[in-house]
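S.,

Sequence below, as promised.
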Amino acid sequence: MNLLVIYTYPNHRSLNYDFLQKVLEGSRENPAISAVQVLDLYEEEFDPVLVFHEQKRRRDMHADPALEKYRAQIQWADKIVFVYPIWWGRPPAMLLGYIDKMFASGFAYRDNGKLLPEGLLKGKSAVYVSTMKGPALYPLYWLNNAHKVLMRKALLQYVGIRPVKFFEFGSMESPRGRHEQKLQRVYRYFKTVAK
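The prediction came back faster than expected:
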């Protein structure tokens, strides 16, 4: 299994970075995982801003040569892992910009005249490892699970990626946030996941 880990946090001395390290540590110890690539969007200085004009049209984004490296990573991956904080009930703008550019028509899906398009990324699965300041149940009760609906249904199922697993950790700025227990949970998952 090939693992693509997309890390979206501007600080390597952070709890999010610790979660990234546990993903990598567990993956290295898992015989089912043959290769891992990490895409650190901030370190990469990925440009999340969409620009369209007469020479650069949205309908051609799936073939933009500037994004070929990132398309190749997605095609290569069997499992895509996203590690990021939840800010204002949603992923960081950097990650959303990556999604806007990469999950384009002609690459991630194709319109087929039906209610839902044909997902072109079938056969892949995904894992979300996200952290937030608020309590773990905040997105469910206050936001009607908007984060999971956005990431699972509006994005990945739309392009054919399933199953989707969530580690959505709350109270992460609290000294009672059980950080080590949550880090170990992520480590154990990646040490044993088979597909």
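The chain has a mean pLDDT of 90.

Coffee later?
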